[in-house]
Design brief:
The protein is of the alpha+beta class. The protein has four domains: about 140 residues, Thiol Ester Dehydrase, Chain A (Roll), CATH 3.10.129; about 160 residues, ABC-type transport auxiliary lipoprotein component (Rossmann fold); about 100 residues, no CATH class; about 90 residues, 2-Layer Sandwich (Alpha-Beta Plaits). It is flat and about 80 Å long.
């Protein structure tokens, strides 16, 4: 008789938690190798030690592989997925496809019952494992049941060339302010005439030089030259004061000097490109991860006709994204992902003669039901090609593979967690007349506590004559709003209660139907 036990540990390729916008603008992002998501799954097999050592070890290896495969199915489909007889039968068939090349680690020992114990760790390619489950007919269809809207812009540009400025503008300005008291007007006029040669310092001098290219402005201050002008002005003021002393004139002078240099460099493309290779590749990846992607173009034409491009700054501003999430919800999307891809064309590699390019993708994914953030990530990739367009397509495919893997894993994990622990709801009971009594609140609370499927303790957030609000976790097959209505309908004062649901927020109005917001 074979016995097996298992444990799981998910490993993913390295991810960047955050990349600043300047990284993409100057082309200084570091690069990571393209890596598929890897699931590291462990399983243990135990068999009685027989006379044939080779047979004993092989039997333990098969038992350990099967245990690891069961753990992998439960990880992707839910904690109880492998209990289904159909799944058990499929696992036996899939076991033949699990070769020894997937073994990353194995440890052998014997237990107190003189059984041979073999623990193996298998390294699965997550995408190939999902495809294996699809072929066996046991893949989770959770993600396909909930539409996903992806809005992504792609920017294709070149790195700023700091050696080729478009033009330079050098500007110097000197302003002088003076005050004096006159004891002898004639003597001051004489002193003022003698220092007239220094008045030229108050004029404005400008110089402009034009180079090649166009765009980005950098400002630098030349402190050394400013100091020279200030020193010259100070000497002039000194001479004026000295001349004035001999003619009984008390005078003071103040001079401010400003100097700046502006350099404009060749600009980068500041608008999204008309052709979006990353999004096209993501549609292909979505099919592989069994994602239900909605039509991006139809959504944009209906809701985002005059919307700004999805820049890195826009992705980091919650107010801008909030508008996108609300529009996606009206579009009947359960999930929304906003992202952008910036692809920077690099130089030609002299060793291969191919064009190089770097790509950065940044994304945020939400549940439109409650605004829960599913994923927020970024990744850089590098590629090469015979032309700039080929290089761009190659790096777009790498970026899309990362986005598809991240989005697919996040959605599967989100629903797997909800199936295991339930969903959080906000429940509000209000009186439109402001007359919510303590008896009303107590009756409503008692009804909630008696519901089947409510997990953990109900958290009260508000309780007064205007309203009663709680948060609870519900895990059940029945509709929660209907179950609450059924639990309180026979209680005094609740016969006319109306209800309104907005995602995971439920509003119950004591006297009548809830008004529209």
């Amino acid at each position: 008789m074979l016995r097996a036990s298992f444990s799981t540990q998910g490993l993913q390729g390295m991810k960047l938690s955050h990349i600043a916008g300047a990284c993409a603008l100057v082309g200084l992002c570091w690069t990571l190798p393209a890596a598929a998501e890897t699931l590291s799954i462990s399983g243990t097999g135990r068999v009685p030690i027989g006379e044939n050592v080779a047979h004993t070890r092989q039997a333990a290896l098969q038992a350990a592989k099967r245990a690891a495969l069961v753990a992998a199915v439960n990880k992707l489909n839910g904690p109880k997925a492998a209990q289904d007889p159909k799944v058990q039968e499929a696992i036996d068939t899939m076991l033949e496809q699990v070769g020894d090349d997937l073994i990353a680690e194995q440890n052998a020992s014997t237990d107190a019952n003189r059984q041979f114990v073999l623990r193996v760790t298998l390294a699965f390619d997550a995408l190939k494992l999902r495809q294996m489950l699809q072929d066996a007919g046991i893949a989770s269809t959770t993600a396909r049941q909930f539409p996903i809207l992806v809005v992504m812009d792609e920017f294709f540009t070149t790195a700023t060339d700091k050696t080729k400025p478009l033009r330079e503008l050098v500007e110097f300005r000197s302003d002088r302010a003076s005050s004096f008291s006159q004891a002898d007007r004639a003597s001051f006029d004489s002193a003022n005439a003698s220092s007239s040669s220094s008045a030229m310092a108050g004029r404005e001098h400008r110089a402009a030089a034009v180079a090649a290219d166009n765009g980005q402005v950098a400002v630098a201050a030349r402190s050394q030259q400013s100091a020279q002008y200030a020193a010259q002005s100070q000497r002039s003021a000194s001479e004026r004061v000295s001349a004035s002393r001999d003619n009984s004139v008390a005078a003071s002078s103040q001079e401010s000097v400003a100097f700046r240099k502006l350099v404009e460099y060749q600009p980068q493309n500041v608008g999204p490109d008309a052709v979006n290779y990353t999004y096209s590749a993501l549609l292909r990846e979505g099919n592989q991860f069994d994602l239900n992607l909605l039509d991006n173009d139809l959504f944009r034409s209906r809701y985002l006709k005059n919307a700004k491009p999805l820049t890195l700054a826009a992705l980091q501003q919650g107010t801008e994204l909030g508008r996108y999430v609300q529009a996606a919800r009206e579009f009947k999307a359960d999930y929304f992902m906003a992202g952008n891809a910036i692809i920077i064309q690099g130089p030609v590699d002299p060793s291969t003669g191919q064009v190089t390019c770097d790509g950065l993708v940044s994304l945020k994914a939400y549940s439109t039901e409650d605004g829960h953030v599913l994923a927020a990530d970024a990744r850089t990739e590098s590629a090469a090609g015979n032309s700039a367009d080929q290089c761009r397509v190659n790096v777009s495919n790498k970026l899309a593979r990362f986005v598809g893997s991240t989005l697919g894993s996040s959605i599967h994990g989100f629903w797997r967690q909800r199936q295991t622990y339930g969903r959080e709801y906000t429940i509000r009971l209000v009186s439109l007349k402001g007359q919510l009594s303590e008896d009303n609140r107590d009756d409503f609370a008692d009804a909630l506590e008696t519901l089947q499927g409510v997990q953990n303790k109900i958290q009260v957030r508000r309780s007064d004559r205007q309203g009663y609000e709680v948060m609870l976790t519900y895990k059940g097959d029945a509709d929660l709003a209907r179950e609450i209505r059924r639990a309180v309908r026979d209680k005094r004062g609740f016969s006319n209660m109306g209800r309104k649901m907005d995602g995971t927020t439920m509003l119950f109005c004591l006297e009548s139907d809830c008004p529209n917001p």
